[in-house]
Amino acid sequence: MLAWFGARLLLRIIASGRRIAGLPENFEMRVEPDMNLLLFTICVAVLTSLLFGLAPALRPMAAPSSWLRSARSGQTRRGRRFGTTLVVAQVALSVTLLSAGAQFVQRLYQLRYNLGFRSDHLLLVTLDPAGSGLSRRQLTRLYRELLERLEAIPGIRSATLCGPTPISGAGAGRLVIAEGHWEEPGDRRYVSLAWVAPKYFQTLGTPLLAGRDFRFEDTGRSRVAIINETMARYYFRDANPIGKRVTVERDSRTGGWYGSDQPYEIVGVAADAKYYDPGETPHRVLYFNAFQEDRVESNFALRIGVKPAAVVPEVRRAASEILGAVPVGRVTTMAAQVDASIVPERLVATLSGMFGGLGALLAAIGVYGLLAYTVTRRANEIGVRIALGATRGDVSRMVLGGALRIVVAGLALGLPVAFWGRSVAAHLIADLAPQGPAPIIFGAAAMMGVALMAAYLPARRAARVDPVEALRSE
Predict the structure, then answer these.
(1) pLDDT tens-place string over residues 135-184
(2) How many Cβ atoms are within 10 Å of 46's Cβ, its own excluded?
(3) How many helices (H) and strands (E) does the chain have?
(4) Which CA distances in Å does 447 have to 54, 112, 149?
(5) What is the per-residue pLDDT for 202?
(6) What whole-number distance in Å separates Cα of residue 412 and Cα of residue 239?
(7) Which of 213, 220, 320, 342 has most Cβ atoms within 10 angstroms of its Cβ?
(8) b vs e for 254-266, b when ≥16 Cβ sit within 10 Å of the residue's Cβ?
(9) What are the boundaries of each domain within the chain?
(10) Are strands 299-304 and 176-178 parallel, antiparallel or unpaired?
(11) What tens digit of pLDDT does each residue of 234-290 get?
């Protein structure tokens, strides 16, 4: 049953990236049970049970006299040592799996939330004006009216438009000339261009580090632009870029469709944000006022304080009343768009997290089974200890101390493997640099907590041993 539900969870993750993969929205992926695979796993489970069940059953038959001599303790020293070794190995493997899972989950968290903008409560609405017959100037006027109408809808805190939207693929790029900065021809790199409306940075939650935001009043005045932090640092070093000018060059190879000799005045500096890929290193971005450029895009971003379903009907109604024949092409959330771009990372994090959790569960079962068996076989000894004055707390600490020794031994074996595995994973998987010791510390702490919880019931049972009953059995 776990495998059945797990397979469907993985399918949902894969399906969330179908737009990035170029698959249609109605594309269905299905997984049917494979009877050959099911029979194979059942045979492996049965064979494993038989092998590990026969081993302790055959040992008394090989040397019955030694087992009769150890009947009072119920188990030979060699048998106890072998059982403890198995559980220690189980703990070592489990802490390795937990550490690996924590590393991939930490990487996923960074990709999801270290974006430079807030992806939560952000609704994306894309219009399709291609067949409307409206000119660019008409769309500019109508889109401004639509933004005002959208902000009046209850539940929408702010509205803007942008092109392209963050984490939606590559956009335009051009070479630029910055006032007071000289570049060698071989060092020049393209700067990404984005056309946004006023309140773009407020809506996306990207801080403005200096200067001001775009305004609708910029239309008809001298051209203005906003640069990101990386671009400000590259071109202006420690100098204040506000008031400086930057010029966008035409593409010398293709003639380019965009570029002008007229410079732009820098009026603001925005914090770095991931624009094309959640795993990218921040690069230089130049933002233009879409309304001043008369280049409005059809991607609307809405910061909402309610569930998307509560405002989508009103958004569609407002678009229909103002734009008439312009249909709403796509409605999604920024969180879904981000998730669709990191499907492989989500799959790896989910699988490693599931394996780590299962490993911890198996280790907990092993620790519990070993301690429960030990408490049962040592009931007489525990009764004698209590009769001689040991408190229930002393007995509980004795059992928990045994569990702690098992976990410490397992950690001593597993932690070096976890550190080695982290380095191997960093070499095999692109952009997975070691993120410090936090994932391994988490794995060790989680394993310690799981083992102590598993030891709680045997410790409690040992503390409740009746010394009279235990001694009477002697």
Answers:
(1) 888 899 999 999 999 999 999 999 999 988 888 765 788 899 999 888 88
(2) 10
(3) 14, 12
(4) 29, 26, 54
(5) 95
(6) 52
(7) 342
(8) eeeeebeeebbeb
(9) 1-43, 76-114+342-474, 129-326
(10) unpaired
(11) 999 889 999 999 999 876 554 454 556 689 999 999 999 988 888 888 889 999 999
Collapse the DSSP code of 174 into the 3-class scheme (helix H, G, I; strand E, B; otherwise coil) and give the result.
Answer: strand
Buried-exposed string 12-39: b where 16+ CB fall within 10 A, e elsewhere: ebebbbbbeeeeeeeeeeeeeeeeeeee
Contact criterion met (CB below 8 Å) for 146 and 326: no
Q: Which residue has the tokens 């081993």?
A: 55
Q: How far is CA 105 from CA 80, 102, 374, 437, 442, in A?
A: 37, 5, 37, 14, 11
Angstrom distance (rounded) from CA 345 to CA 335? 15
**Which of 301, 349, 336 has the alpha carbon at shortest distance from 25?**
336
Give 164 or 56, the one with higher predicted confidence.
164
Which has the closest alpha carbon to 177: 293, 238, 264? Answer: 264
Query: 393-422 burial string, b = 16+ CB within 10 Å, else e?
Result: eebbebbbebbeebbebbbeebbeebeebb
Tokens of 237: 């070093």
Residue 425, CB half-sphere, CA atoms under 13 Å: how many? 22
Residue 205: predicted pLDDT = 95
Average per-residue pLDDT in the chain? 84
Q: What is the DSSP string of 232-243?
A: HHHHHTTS--TT
With a cut of 80, say whether residue 70 has pLDDT above it: no
d(CA 412, CA 419): 12
| Dist. CA 155–CA 304, nearest whole Å | 6
Locate 446 and state its tokens: 């989680």
Q: How far apart are CA 55 and CA 41, in angstroms?
A: 21
pLDDT confidence band for 434 (50 / 70 / 90): low
Range among 117-121, 362-366, 446-450 with highest mean pLDDT value: 117-121
Tokens 């261009």 -> residue: 193
pLDDT band at 379; cut points 50, 70, 90: confident
Instruction: Give the sign of the dihedral formed by CA 420, CA 426, CA 427, CA 429.
Output: positive
Q: Which two tokens stand for residue 427?
A: 């070499």
Token pair 């976990």 is at which residue? Answer: 407
Q: Give the pLDDT confidence score for residue 320 in this predicted structure.
A: 92
Phi, psi of 296 (to 5 degrees): -75, 135
Task: Measure the CA–CA gap between 235 and 231, rounded to whole angstroms.
Answer: 6
Checking if the pLDDT of 102 tops 80, the result is yes
Taking the C-alpha atoms of residue 283 and residue 303, their distance in angstroms, rounded to an integer, is: 25
| Cβ-contact 264, 225 below 8 angstroms | yes
